[in-house]
Amino acid sequence: MRNVIYLLLLALLTGLTLTAVAGEGAAGSWNGEIVDVACYVANGDQGRGPDHAKCAKGCVKGGQPMGLLIDDGTLYILAADHKDGAPYEAAKDLAGEMAEVSGVASENAGVKMVTVTGVKKAG
Questions:
Q1: Distance in angstroms (rounded) separating the CA atoms of residues 15 and 71
Q2: Which of 7, 15, 65, 111 is such that its CA lies 20 to 30 A from the CA of 79?
């Protein structure tokens, strides 16, 4: 009987942990540079900025992952909203530029992501 109680308690705690990890994130807007993740992660500051904008646009339009690098150095991977991918596609045109990205932020296993619901050039 004691083992059954421990197993039930373990199952309950595991379920609560999985729910917390896979739960909905927070909606908001973030300002930063849209970067192509492949160049930025591999090359740091050499893989970002105005001098890298042409390369960034080509990379993300060619299928490389895209991210939003905010002022504090946090990099959010950008993902298309399954219901409307148009804002994500529009973000590709702003690669290498400062932008305001709206969406839903989430995090799992240390990876931060924003599901893009809106994007505009920062101004």
A1: 36
A2: 15
- Start-to-end C-alpha separation, the chain: 65
- Cα–Cα distance for residue pair 86/72, rounded to 1 Å: 27
> Rounded distance, CA 47 to CA 40, Å?
4
H-helix or E-strand spanning residue 50:
none
Residue 114 CA, chain-centre distance (Å), reads 4
CA–CA gap between residue 122 and residue 33 (Å, rounded): 9
Encode pLDDT of 76-99 as tens digits: 999 999 999 999 999 999 999 999
DSSP type of residue 72: T
Residues 87, 117: contact at Cβ < 8 Å?
yes
- Say how many CA atoms lie within 13 Å of 43 toward its Cβ: 14
Q: Which long-range CB contacts under 8 A does 6-10 form with residues at least 24 apart?
A: none
pTM, whole model, 2 decimals? 0.78
User: Distance between CA 43 and CA 51 in Å, rounded?
Assistant: 13
